[in-house]
Amino acid sequence: MSASKLEDLFKSIETDDTVDSSLYDELKQGLISRSYNILEIVENLGILLVNKESALRKRGTEILSKVLGMLDKTQLNERELEFLLAFYCDRLKDHHSIVPDILLGFYNLSDMKHLPQDGYIKMFPAIFLNFNCQSQLILDRKLFYEILFKCMQHNLDGLKPMGPDFVYGVIQSIDGERDPRNLIFLFTTLVPLFLKNFEMYHLNEEMFDIMACYFPVDFRPKENDPDAISREDLSNALMPNLTAKPSFAEFAIPLALEKLESDLKVAKVDSLKLLTSSCYKFPVEKITESSKKIWNVAKNDSNAGDSDVRKGVVELLHALLTVLPDDEASGLFQVIYNHVKYSISTNIDKVLFVSNTNMLITISKDSKVCMKQVAILLIPILYNEINKTYNDEYIQILNEILEICSNNLDIRLSELTELSIAWNDLIELYFKLCSTSDCCLCGLNSLHSYLDLEQRKSMYSILYDGIKTNRESKEFQACLCTFAKHYQEEIVENVIFPLKNEIVDQNKNKNEVQVDNIQNKILEDLKQNDQTVYTKDEADSEFMKPLAYRRDEAGEEVPIFVAICPPARQTPVEELFIKNLYCPLISLESYLKDLSSDVIEYCLSQTSNDSCFRFCYQDCATNITYLKLIVDKYEEKYDVLSYFEKKFNVCQNVIKIFLKNVGNEAYSISFVLDCISILNTILSAFNKQDVSNKISVIQKVIVLSREILEEDINDVKLIILIPLLNNVDFTTDEQQIKDFQTQIEHFSSTILDTAISTQDPFINKYTSILLAIILNTVGDLNSNESVLNTNSLQSKLLSLPYNENVNTLHAYITKSLIMKGHTNIESMLQILVDNLKSYQEGKRVIESLKILIREDTVRGDHFEFKNVRFLYRQRLFSFCLNNLLKNVSSTTKLQTDGDKNKIVKLNNYLAILIQLKHLPNQIIIAHVKTLLPIMIECLTLICDTQLDKKGTNGINETSPDMIEEDNPDTNTELDTYYDTHNFDEELQNLLGLFVEFLKSKMEILHEYVNSFVDKFLYIAQNHSSLNLRIAALQCLHYLSDLNIVVLMPFKNKVLEGLKLVLDDKKRLVRKQVVVTIDKWYILDSVEDSN
Question: In this protein, which residues make up the domain named MMS19 C-terminal (predicted)?
Answer without folding.
Answer: 677-1039
